[in-house]
Specification:
Low-confidence stretches of chain A: 246-267
Shape of chain B: globular
Order of helices and strands of chain B: EEEHEEHEHHHEHEHEEHH
Low-confidence stretches of chain B: none
Number of helices of chain A: 12
CATH topology of chain A: MetI-like fold
CATH architecture of chain A: Orthogonal Bundle
Mean pLDDT of chain B: 93
Distance between the termini of chain B: 36 Å
Radius of gyration of chain A: 24 Å
Radius of gyration of chain B: 18 Å
Largest sheet of chain A: none
Largest sheet of chain B: 6 strands, mixed
Structural class of chain B: alpha/beta
Structural class of chain A: mainly alpha
Number of strands of chain A: 0
Number of domains of chain A: 1
Strand content of chain A: under 5%
Largest interface: A-B, 36 and 44 residues
Order of helices and strands of chain A: HHHHHHHHHHHH
Shape of chain A: elongated
Number of strands of chain B: 10
Strand content of chain B: 15-25%
Oligomer: heterodimer
Helix content of chain B: 25-40%
Strand order of the largest sheet of chain B: 6-7-8-3-9-10
């Protein structure tokens, strides 16, 4: 071990390069798992958040019968409790708690040969869902209530109005926050180290433990994390920019004098 | 066609509609005028069931609107509403705004729906904006799209909730022009408006509302030129001079 590590250059950049090349398969495997967990958990978390955000958005109407008011308030309480508990406790604690509580369950469903990957995805998904619920709820609330009224006035059901009119706009408005959750998840999968999921941090730890070069190894890990998050941020920014062009509901008549002049002729 | 009997509505302690009875005949154009807070918009929103009411009944073609056999949504699809703030679907194009209700609610095919939407958009003078994004339109254009969106549902009644109040003065004309042409087609319409000369010109009947009551109603020339109630006289004095 000591002999092996003595072959490593002594300067930071040289050592980092040496380790990155020598342990490339380990790092790449870690990156693969980190990205798998971050991406699937963000998507599952989004759907979980949609469901919970919708439940939290059911209004209690003054004219509803008592049992309905009670049921809706109960639903609100349970969804709020979920959101508050999972946003108010560290994911590392959640990871250990969920992992050991449902260990036998996870062992039944290994993904890509690893039940710790399953556990990791479940943990990060549940955690992300709590944040997504708030993002979706805020996205729904940011819309003018006239959107819902207009949808209902042409005969859409509550569900149709939500599905065809409200949610597409809410998700569009919330897209930056949703994308940000993905970036956060790339970094936060590192806490899955505590349950031994072989993501990037775990792999870096393994390399460092083998070589006893902690600074150098985690310098490599830091660069890899940064490349992942920065490129993701850039890609999301491009998508966001593309989406933004035709969006926004504000009056923009002053910016389109040509169109107005044209209409005046028509009328 | 619409029969309202002893309608009452309150928001908490605040009684907005106190005892409204009103009959709307087929093909009739009714304007509702009155100061802000008199309950005009609330009455319109009750007719479309965007607000619930606490007492009284509204019937549509002899059916209580709360007991519509195919449900409230089926009733709403037959009653078109045009809002003060347009409420166009911002994530959809002009054409899609006019298509989505036809496809999702009336279950028309996309081709049929688009054909009717294009025809309707032409009649409101927006032929060149069919593929435009809603955010690029002026206020007057938006309101005309909103009218087209409602017309595409082929409603039996049109409700206008202050359709020109959110518009720049120079865009009011183009919207009123469209509403006037609809009035000429003898559609059943109820228009809440602050445009007195417009109300006088298009209406078969004008209703003056005050503090949750119908204070006075009559033919436009009578009500505008010779109002009987002191409250109506006070309200109209500003407009007549």
């Amino acid at each position: 071990m000591i002999l092996l590590s003595s072959a490593i250059p002594n300067d930071l950049l040289g050592a980092a390069y040496y380790l990155a090349v020598k342990y490339a398969p380990l790092f790449l495997f870690g990156i693969r798992n980190t990205l798998i967990i971050a991406l699937t958990s963000t998507i599952i978390g989004l759907f979980l958040g949609l469901a919970v955000g919708l439940l939290k958005s059911i209004p209690v109407l003054p004219d509803d019968p008592t049992w309905k008011k009670f049921a809706i308030k109960l639903i609100h309480f349970v969804s709020s409790a979920y959101v508050e508990v999972f946003r108010g406790t560290p994911m590392m604690v959640q990871a250990i708690f969920i992992y050991y509580t449902f260990l036998n369950f996870f062992k039944l469903f290994p993904l890509l040969g690893s039940y710790k990957l399953t556990a990791g995805i479940v943990i990060v998904s549940i955690n992300t869902g709590a944040y997504m619920a708030e993002i979706i709820r805020a996205g729904i609330q940011s819309l003018d209530k006239g959107q819902n009224e207009a949808a209902r006035s042409i005969g859409m059901s509550n569900f149709q109005a939500m599905f065809y009119i409200i949610l597409p706009q809410a998700i569009k408005n919330a897209f930056p926050a949703i994308g940000n959750e993905f970036v956060v998840n790339i970094k936060d999968t590192s806490v899955l180290n505590v349950i031994g999921t072989t993501e990037l941090f775990f792999q870096a730890n393994t390399v460092a433990g083998t070589t006893f070069r902690f600074t150098d190894t985690f310098f490599v890990a830091a660069i890899l994390y940064f490349v992942l998050t920065y490129s993701t941020t850039r890609v999301l920014a491009i998508i966001e920019h593309r989406m933004q062009v035709p969006v926004s509901g504000g009056p923009s008549s002053s910016s389109t004098p040509g169109l107005i002049a044209h209409t005046e002729k028509q009328v | 066609m619409i029969n309202i009997q002893h309608l009452k509505k309150n928001f908490g302690q605040n009684e907005v509609l106190k005892d409204i009875s009103l009959t709307v005949n087929r093909g009739e154009v009714i304007s509702i005028i009155g100061s802000s807070g008199s309950g005009k918009s609330t009455l319109l929103r009750c007719i479309n069931l965007l607000e619930t009411y606490h007492d009284g009944t509204i019937t549509f073609e002899e059916t209580d609107i709360l007991k519509f056999p195919q449900g409230i949504n089926h009733y709403r699809a037959q009653v078109g509403m045009i809002f003060q703030s347009f409420n166009l679907f911002n994530h959809l194009s002009v054409l899609q705004n006019c298509v989505i209700g036809q496809v999702k609610v009336l279950k028309r095919t996309k081709a049929d729906a688009e054909a009717l939407a294009i025809k309707t958009l032409e009649t409101v003078g927006l032929k060149d904006f069919i593929q435009a994004s809603v955010s690029t339109l002026s206020g007057g254009q938006k309101q005309r799209v909103a009218i087209a969106r409602t017309l595409c549902m082929e409603p039996k009644v049109l409700l206008f909730d202050e359709p020109t109040s959110a518009l720049d003065p120079e865009m009011v004309g183009e919207v009123l022009q469209v509403i006037k042409s609809l009035a000429k087609e003898h559609r059943t319409m109820i228009i809440v408006t602050h445009e007195m000369s417009f109300a006088k010109e298009v209406s078969d009947r004008v209703i003056f509302m005050d503090q949750g009551f119908i204070c006075e109603e009559g033919k436009p020339e009578e009500l505008f030129l010779n109002p009987k109630e002191p409250r109506t006289q006070a309200f109209l004095s500003r407009f007549i001079q």
